[in-house]
Each structure stands twice: as structure tokens, then as C-alpha cells.
Amino acid sequence: MPGLAANIGNAVRYSLTYVTLPLVGVFSLQTESYSWVALVRVGQQKRNRELMSGRRVLITGGAGFLGCNLADHFIETSHDVVIFDNFYRRGVHHNVEWLRERHGDRFTLIEGDLRDYQALLRAADAAEAVYHVAGQTAVTASVANPREDFEINALGTFNALEAARHAADNPVFIFTSTNKVYGGMEDVAIVEEATRYAYVDHLWGIDESRPLDFHSPYGCSKGAADQYVRDYARIYGLPTVVFRMSSIYGPHQFGVEDQAWVAYFVIAAVKGWPITIYGDGKQVRDVLYVDDLVRAFELATEHIDVSAGQVYNIGGGPRNTLSIWVEFAPLLSQILGRPLKAASYSDWRPGDQRVYISDIRKAWRDFGWEPQAGVDEGLRRIAPWVLENQALFEP
Ligand SMILES: NC(=O)c1ccc[n+]([C@@H]2O[C@H](COP(=O)([O-])OP(=O)(O)OC[C@H]3O[C@@H](n4cnc5c(N)ncnc54)[C@H](O)[C@@H]3O)[C@@H](O)[C@H]2O)c1
Asked: Where in the sequence is the domain holding 155, given as residue range(s)?
């Protein structure tokens, strides 16, 4: 009955077109047999969505930049959110105050340290999702104090995994790794252009098959954690997902000279602080606005049947790139409506990549994610937060 089969195939395709809007581009190009797979995934997605409402979500590092944006979204969408943070990062108590202003007591705050396994075990016990974003975030700090970096990022992640493994509900576990696990990528051919470095090949950016090459204590501690997280899916069946992230930026990011360059340069420009560029300022990054990252967490969780055990490069992708000063400075000056002070220049930092651009197609294929905010739009959203909160920033 080939005619009937074709009709069923068409019906499936049409229903997919209406049911899975974010995935239309993926499935409309597929063969009929794949459409059936897609239909199964649609059903699964719907079930996962239902499971998603009212989930108990533990966010380690929930006071920090990514963590408070995640918390805000998941509290707003009626999840039961627990924040676990030791306020290691200067300034982040302001983020908790902001969450309290918006949500009152609709979330739980546990002041705890990742290095305290028993505290994590108690915090994770009832969780259905663990978003593990707490960490030591700066390469420079890791070089100055590699033991502390190891204990927070490697041992701390191991503790979080063990806590999740012993939790009652086999929670989804998403970990924020970094593009630094790919090292300096010295073998990747690049060219120097007037305002930036660019890849000779790799037009889509760097994908997840890129060999690992940990460089700097931070690269090593995050890389070890990244591999543990991936392996817990294989060995213990914990539904884990690794996001290897490029530069994320947005409101509530207390950028400092050592980390979070987008926020730091906006803050420094607004406050009139001197700015030092390490290298020549033509280093290129793909940048991602934080709301888009929050959506990636949500979609990867909804599609955990596909994303479990997987690693994804997550960033702005080839469409959202910027050289860190030569291109960024004029754009920032335009957004702030005034000239910026001239920057001074210093030596390159260890392991600093001339170009890093994420190939984000795997996340699109697996859970229909891609960035929505462009660079200009994202920067226009972070600038007002800095301007309105100038009193919070100290040099
Ligand atoms: N922001 C980015 O561009 C980016 C890029 C790649 C990877 N990452 C990773 O994403 C995660 C979050 O980054 P962020 O930008 O939100 O940083 P952040 O510093 O704003 O947030 C990290 C939070 O973790 C908390 N923390 C640190 N050590 C802790 C400990 N021992 N116990 C409990 N809490 C602790 C801090 O107090 C802070 O609130 C980090 O793991 C970082 O390595 C971030």
C-alpha cells in the first residue's frame, strides 16, 4: 500500500510543521522514515514539557551571573528553585537581592560550598534537575592558586555529580564547561585581517569533535570536570549534558579584568577606568546573550532523551562574533554615545586563543536551539543595567 504509506507520511510531515515549530527546519528536510522518528520525539518532547512544569531545580552558583538568570527564569516559570552558593564571587549577593525583590520567598537559598559534599548531598536530594554552574571562573586566578581552582572546579563538580547520582530521582544534570578545553588550537590556520583574526577554514566554527587539549590550571580543572560529567551518563546512566561555552554576557554579570570581558569593558567604560588589552585586541570570540543560554538549558532539558550523555558547543556561533577591542570599542562608544579612553596594551595571556568561534549546529540538530539576540541587540541590553547600577561596581 505505497499510496497509503505516502499519505501517512505527508500527514506526519504536516502535523510536525504545526506541532514542532522550532524543529521545522530540521524535520521538513528529512525522509519519511525519519519523520516517524520525529513523531516519536514530538510525543517525548510533549511529555518532557509536562514533566518540566513544577520541577525541583537545584542551581549551584545560583547567585552568580548565569545562575541568577537561570533562577529568575525557572522561578518565573513555576519551578521550585534551590540556589546553592558560597558567595565566592564579589558582588553576587546583589543578584540574590534582585531575585528577592522580584520573587520574594519563592526560592530557597542555601549558603554552601561545593567542597562540602554532605551539604551538596542534602541540597540535591529532592532535585529533578541540577544545573551546575558554580565555579572558579578565571584563568589568571587558577594560575595564581591552582589548588583552590582544582578543589572548586574538579572536586566540586565531582561532588555535585555524586550528589546527583545519589539523589532520589536521577536528575538531569547540566554542566557549564568552557571552550578552553580545546586549548590554544595552534594547528588551526588563521589569518590576520584589519580588525580581527579569522579562521582560514572552519567556516561554521569549531565543533565538538575537536581534540581536547587542556591548557592552564583552569583548562585542566574544567576539562577534568567536563569528562567526569560526560562519563557519568555512560557509567551510571545519569542524564548529564555538557555545554562547552564561549563568551556569555548580559545583566547581573560582575565582570572583572580577569574574566567576563564584555561586561568588564562596559563597566570600565562607564566608570572611566583605565583599560588594558592583553594581546592586540583583535582576538575574536563568538558572544552569546544570556537569555539565549537560559533557553538552551530549557531545551536541552526538554529533549533529555536526545541530549543525555552529549557535549554541545554553545556560543553565539559564526553570526555573532566580535574582536575583543578593535571592533568592540567603536561599537561600545556608539552605544554609550561618547568616546572611550584609549586602552593600553600588554602581553598575551597563557592559552588565549586568537580566534574561537563555536560550531553550534549540533545543538540545533538535537534540540532546535540557536541564538536569537544579535551582538548589537545584546549589548544594548547590558549597557542600561551597568548604567543603572554604577554604585555596585568597584575597581
Ligand atoms: N560567563 C561566561 O562567559 C562563561 C564561559 C564559559 C564557562 N563559564 C562557566 O559558567 C559557570 C558560571 O559562570 P558565571 O559567569 O555565571 O560566573 P559567576 O562567577 O558569576 O558565577 C559563579 C558562581 O559560583 C559561585 N561559587 C564559586 N565557587 C563556589 C563554591 N566553592 N561553592 C559554591 N559556590 C561557588 C560564585 O559565588 C558565583 O556566584 C562557571 O563554571 C564558568 O566556568 C562561563
From this structure: 53-392
Q: Which three cell numbers stand for residue 330?
A: 567603536
* 83 CB within 6 A, ligand 1: no
Is residue 191 packed enough to be buried (19+ CB in 10 Å), middle (13-18) or exposed (0-12)? Answer: exposed
Taking phi over 0 as left and psi of -120 to 50 as alpha, with beta for the rest, 250 belongs to left
Report if residue 27 sits inside a domain.
Answer: no
Q: Is the CB of 284 under 6 A from ligand 1?
A: no
Are 21 and 47 spatial neighbours (Cβ–Cβ below 8 Å)?
Answer: no
87 lines ligand 1 (CB under 6 A): yes
Q: Determine the atom of ligand 1 nearest the C-alpha atom of 114.
A: 32
Domain of 363, CATH number, reads 3.40.50.720
CA dihedral sign of residues 28, 34, 35, 38: negative
Whether residue 107 is contained in a domain is answered as yes
Q: Is residue 40 part of a domain?
A: no
Residue nearest to atom 28 of ligand 1 (CA): 135
Provide the number of structural domains found in the chain: 1
The answer to whether 218 is a known catalytic residue is: yes
Angle between helical axes of 65-76 and 93-103 (0-180°, round to 10): 10
Whether 25 is covered by a domain: the verdict is no
From 182, 199, 218, 278, the catalytic residue: 218
Residue nearest to atom 43 of ligand 1 (CA): 137
Distance 223 CA to ligand 1 centre (A): 15
Per-residue pLDDT of the chain (395 residues; tens, 9 = 90+): 333 333 333 333 223 322 333 333 333 323 323 333 333 444 455 545 555 568 999 999 999 999 999 999 999 999 999 999 999 999 999 999 999 999 999 999 999 999 999 999 999 999 999 999 999 999 999 999 999 999 999 999 999 999 999 999 999 999 999 999 999 899 999 999 999 999 999 999 999 999 999 999 999 999 999 999 999 999 999 999 999 999 999 999 999 998 999 999 999 999 999 999 999 999 999 999 999 999 999 999 999 999 999 999 999 999 999 999 999 999 999 999 999 999 999 999 876 889 999 999 999 999 999 999 999 999 999 999 999 999 999 87
